[in-house]
Amino acid sequence: MNDDPEQLHRYVEELLRDGRPARTPLPDETALRARQTAAMLRAVKPGVGLPSNDFVNRVQHSIMERLRTPPPPAPVVRPSRRSLLLAGAAGIAAGVAVVAGIDRLPKPPAPSASAPLVQNGNWKRVSALADLPEGTPVAFRSGAIEGFLIRRGGQVDGRSAVCPHMGCILNYSKFRDRFECPCHGAIFSLDGEPVRRYTRPLRALPSVQVRVQGSQVEVYTV
């Protein structure tokens, strides 16, 4: 190695003290590689990747200065004349509505019986007329239709058995003489009209077209 031993020693000592070695002329490439090797060995010294104490102290000082400095006050936003006028008008309108009792207006009544359930279908036999008791609903199923048949003399009426609230199949209570939903407690009369009121009015039960052919009862279904 063509390097001055004294200069190389001072170079290594300066590196170990975390100093900056003085620049000295090197005689050849071998001497340059010796200095480079010393720098590489200094780079693997334990703790060399950690920040210096001076850097840490400066960062802490900067953080403390930021914490001691109060944030600038938020700008005061003054409402425009237009927004004040609109707000005042809205308040007056709300007061008038309360005085007039708008919030106490009655809710719209529930819709009446709807149109027949099936528009384009076929007549299918579902029961013998003699099997239907007078005035007592009898459940039936035909195709995609589930409903009730109610005989009144020689006439038979039909109502859908599907609750218009959540689509559950209704039950007929003989004791209370009404249709009842097992899911959410909806109640309907034999005419299909809702009895119990809800927040949203319930629709009446759709009618099912029924006809009597001789001794047989047929429904219009799909």
Topology:
Elements: H1 5-16, H2 29-43, H3 53-68, H4 81-100, E1 122-128, E2 138-142, E3 145-152, E4 155-160, E5 171-173, E6 178-180, E7 187-188, E8 207-208, E9 210-213, E10 216-221
Antiparallel strand pairs: 1-10, 2-3, 3-4, 4-8, 5-6, 6-7, 9-10
From the 3D coordinates, which CATH architecture of the largest domain would you assign? 3-layer Sandwich
Mean residue pLDDT: 76
What's the number of helices? 4
Question: CATH topology of the largest domain, anyone?
Answer: Rieske Iron-sulfur Protein
**Portion in helices:** 25-40%
Alpha carbon gyration radius: 47 Å
Domain count, please report it: 2
Which blocks of ≥5 consecutive residues have pLDDT under 50? 96-113
Strand content: 15-25%
Tell me how many strands there are: 10
Q: Name the structural class.
A: alpha+beta
Which overall shape is indicated by the principal axes computed on the Cα atoms?
elongated
**Topology pattern, helix = H, strand = E:** HHHHEEEEEEEEEE
Tell me briefly what this model is.
The chain is an alpha+beta fold.
Attribute tags:
alpha+beta; Rieske Iron-sulfur Protein; three-stranded antiparallel beta sheet; 10 strands; 28% helix; elongated
Give an overview in words.
The chain has helices at 5-16, 29-43, 53-68, 81-100; strands at 122-128, 138-142, 145-152, 155-160, 171-173, 178-180, 187-188, 207-208, 210-213, 216-221. It has two domains: 5-67, no CATH class; 122-221, Rieske Iron-sulfur Protein (3-layer Sandwich), CATH 2.102.10. Residues 96-113 have low confidence and may be disordered. A hairpin with a 4-residue loop joins strand 5 (171-173) and strand 6. The protein is elongated, with a radius of gyration of 47 Å. The strands form three sheets. Strands 2-3-4-8 form a four-stranded antiparallel β-sheet, with no helix packed on it. Strands 1-10-9 form a three-stranded antiparallel β-sheet, with no helix packed on it. With 222 residues, it is of the alpha+beta class.
